[in-house]
Amino acid sequence: MLVSSLSGEPLPDVVDFNDHIQPLISEKCYHCHGPDSSTRTPKKTPLRLDREDFAFLERPNGKFAFIKGDSKGSEVFQRIISKDVDDVMPPPESHKKPLSPDEIALIKRWIDQGADYEEHWSFIPPTRPEPPKIDWGNNPIDQFVAARHREKGLKASPPGDPSRLLRRLTFDLTGLPPTPAEVASFREMAARDLSTAVEMTIGKLLTTDAYAEHFGRHWLDAARYADTHGIHNDNYRGIWPYRDWVIEAFGKNMRFDQFTREQIAGDLLPEPTLNQRIATGFNLSLIHI
Predict the structure, then answer these.
(1) Tens digit of pLDDT for each residue in 104-136?
(2) Rounded to the nearest 5°, which phi and psi values hold at 12?
(3) pLDDT at 9
(4) What is the Cα–Cα distance from 15 to 12, expressed in whole angstroms?
(5) How far apart are CA 250 and CA 55, in angstroms?
(6) In the chain, what are the domain boundaries?
(7) What sign results for the dihedral spanned by CA atoms 263, 121, 152, 110?
(8) 82/105 Cα distance (integer angstroms)
(9) Of the candidates 264, 282, 180, the residue with the CA atom closest to the CA atom of residue 225
(10) Region of 253 on the Ramachandran plot (φ > 0 left; ψ -120 to 50 alpha; else beta)
């Protein structure tokens, strides 16, 4: 269920910390009240809002930053809605944009609903939600999309041309456009069964060298791979075998734990192979960040 906000946009009936509140206070509050102790204020009695075990402690003035279920008694909320330039948060000198009416409404609802903090999303075991009961689409993801369309008053576009779908698939998975022959073949398969055509095409693309090179490139970018040293000493360095190792690993669909272990410490494994030693070129890339 959604409830209209002051601007007419829907507000969630149940406000979620990770989805709605943490992004707000991270952007607006964490510079002065977050994990960095060097910027945390006030200096004598710093307030920290990024951790639940600090956010609900009594302040030296006897007030509380947050009080579960009580936005009127929560000092943070009262400072957010204050009209006094000496009290309002975020303060004008921080050069942060003031919270919008909708953002203020979200924080108020979150506090009044109990101000529940959550662990970082990566530490929360995923759960499989039940798809909305909507008769549209080909899979459960489509049902979630359709439910959001209904909330927003939107209608889905008609089915696209198979050629456009193939173009998106090949660009996403290989970075290259499909050939005319591939387009003709896909259109023929799609005319019989679109889902089967998509599955077969994806399976084929994932076995190509172009896929391994395309996705390996993203990892090489993250590892700061380069054929020269860069900066002040821009001479050649021949670690292209590491580049080829990454591409080959993607081509073989190597397990991620093995992929990272061999790059970080392949030479320290029992009886390391030449390829495992080559994988540690990852560390040489990091040296030049």
Answers:
(1) 999 999 999 999 999 988 899 999 999 999 888
(2) -65, 140
(3) 65
(4) 6
(5) 44
(6) 2-123, 162-207, 210-287
(7) negative
(8) 14
(9) 282
(10) left
Distance CA 202, CA 200 (A): 6
10: nearest Cα among 135, 109, 131, 112: 109
Give the pLDDT confidence score for residue 228 in this predicted structure: 76
User: What is the per-residue DSSP string for 131-179?
Assistant: PP----SSSHHHHHHHHHHHHHT--PPPPPPHHHHHHHHHHHHHSSPPP
Distance (Å, rounded) from C-alpha 200 to C-alpha 1? 39
Q: Which of 68, 30, 69, 71 is nearest to 51 (CA)?
A: 30
Q: Which residue has the tokens 């979200």?
A: 106
Question: Token match 């977050």: residue?
Answer: 34
pTM of the model: 0.60
Kindly report the backbone phi and psi dihedral angles of residue 236, in degrees, each rounded to the nearest multiple of 5, phi listed first: -65, 140
What pLDDT score was predicted for residue 139? Answer: 87
Q: Name every residue whose Cβ is closer than 8 Å to that of residue 66 and which is 6 or more positions away in sequence.
A: 55, 56, 74, 76, 77, 111, 115
Spans of the chain below 70 pLDDT: 1-9, 229-234, 285-289
Predicted pLDDT at 1: 37
